[in-house]
Design goal:
Blueprint lengths: L2 H9 L1 H11 L10 E7 L15 H19 L3 E5 L9 H10 L4 E8 L11 E6 L5 H11 L8 H4 L22 H17 L5 E7 L2 H4 L5 E8 L3 H8 L1 H25 L18 H4 L14 E10 L16 E6 L2 E9 L2 H11 L7 E6 L2 E2 L2
Parallel strand pairs: 1-2, 1-3, 3-6, 4-5
Antiparallel strand pairs: 4-6, 7-9, 7-10, 8-9, 10-11
């Protein structure tokens, strides 16, 4: 580490302490209901990115409200909280505070991307999780979204000297870890796959970058760039009612998949929600985008396995990541590989296997297969 870089570390050490106190502690669940916070980026005096005729703040609010309505209409056991439900300005740290005070289980932040008019704009959707940016493009996106703090009074004091336009400010993210990264990546992968396959968006992949709003929330969290509002084709889709409904549906599907896994990890055999399907087409089950629930039939005997790991990476049969568990199998859910241990048709044996797996993977849970396909 050269002295200039070391100096920046000393400069931002108070900022590290500020973030550590607000984000490193795990949320304490005080709610009977699963809580999801939907964050419509920008608002009020902050229009966000601008297209030829559309504003980011308007697109994100409309998609947020549509997404929230889908969840509220179809889940009795989920509480939806919005950081804003109208065209108002909400400080960045206040958005995180809303989620933390609610002890939320998920934080979903919605945004639109843009390039200056001097540049030829790409198009497509990308879903971010918190992390150290590995490319200039990712840094530029983080800078644009973090710049919202410039609308806040005394932002330099509030964010301990953080300047969203200075690359050196982002050094602090290199020295932080995110305990919710695995769940965040899981949700981000589901969302990205759903937006690409169902809403037919151009795929710009799941990425990592240093977003202040994600750094401050103490729960699994993602930031979705719904498209490039600076791209003519993307802008037309983003501002259309059909486009907004399509994106809300796609994110809802991903949420439903994530929630199903959450329920199993929590030991819930069946969630209290209504589980009504909201589909844009009839390809959902075939594409593997969601897990279809089905009763046991005479022609298909139930098989129980222990799911212990989800990853975008495909591991070999004896990978060290399995911590000695064997035999291990996997199935693909979207672009995510989900790894399972053991196989039995006896529920009591499944419970024994679960206890063994939880010695190394405390979040392991039982999944049910029929005819080689996961049904629960």
């Amino acid at each position: 580490m050269d002295m200039r870089r070391y100096g920046y570390l000393i400069l931002f050490l108070p900022l590290f302490c500020f973030f550590s106190q607000s984000t490193f502690a795990a949320p304490v669940s005080q709610n009977a209901k699963f809580t999801v916070v939907i964050d419509a980026g920008h608002g009020g005096k902050d229009p966000g990115a601008l297209g030829a005729t559309a504003k980011e703040k308007d697109v994100t609010l409309k998609v947020a409200k549509k997404l929230g309505a889908l969840i509220e209409d179809n889940y009795d056991d989920v509480r939806v909280i919005y950081t804003r439900k109208s065209d108002v300005f909400v400080e960045l740290n206040r958005r995180a505070q809303i989620a933390n005070n609610a002890h939320a289980d998920l934080f979903i932040s919605l945004h639109c991307n843009a390039l200056s008019k001097r540049q030829r704009s790409p198009q497509g959707v990308e879903t971010f999780v918190l992390g150290l940016h590995r490319s200039k493009d990712n840094l530029d996106v983080a800078k644009a979204e973090n710049a919202v703090i410039l609308y806040e009074k005394d932002y330099s004091t509030t964010y301990q000297g953080f300047n969203p336009n200075e690359p050196e400010s982002y050094i602090i993210f290199e020295f932080m870890t995110n305990k919710f990264l695995e769940q965040s990546v899981q949700l981000a992968t589901l969302v990205q796959h759903s937006l690409v396959s169902n809403s037919k968006r151009v795929n710009r992949n799941v990425r990592q970058a240093g977003f202040l709003v994600l750094r401050e929330v103490a729960m699994p969290s993602i930031l979705i760039e719904l498209g490039y509002i600076s791209n003519k084709a993307d802008e037309a889709f983003l501002k259309s009612a059909n486009g907004q409904s399509s994106m809300a549906n796609s994110i809802y599907r991903a949420f439903s998949n994530y929630k199903a896994d959450y329920d199993k990890k929590s030991g819930l055999i069946a969630s209290a929600n209504k589980r009504k399907e909201v589909l844009l087409d009839e390809t959902q089950e075939e594409s593997g985008d969601t897990v279809a629930a089905a009763p046991t039939t005479a022609t298909g005997k139930s098989e129980y396995r222990i799911q212990f790991l989800a990853s975008s990476r495909k591991y070999g049969a004896k990978a060290s990541a399995f911590k000695g568990l064997s035999p291990v199998d996997n199935y693909k859910d979207g672009s995510t590989y989900k790894y399972t241990y053991g196989s039995t048709s006896d529920k009591n044996e499944a419970l024994r296997l679960l206890k063994k797996a939880q010695r190394s993977f405390k979040d392991a849970f039982i999944v049910e297969f029929q005819n080689g396909k996961r049904i629960r």
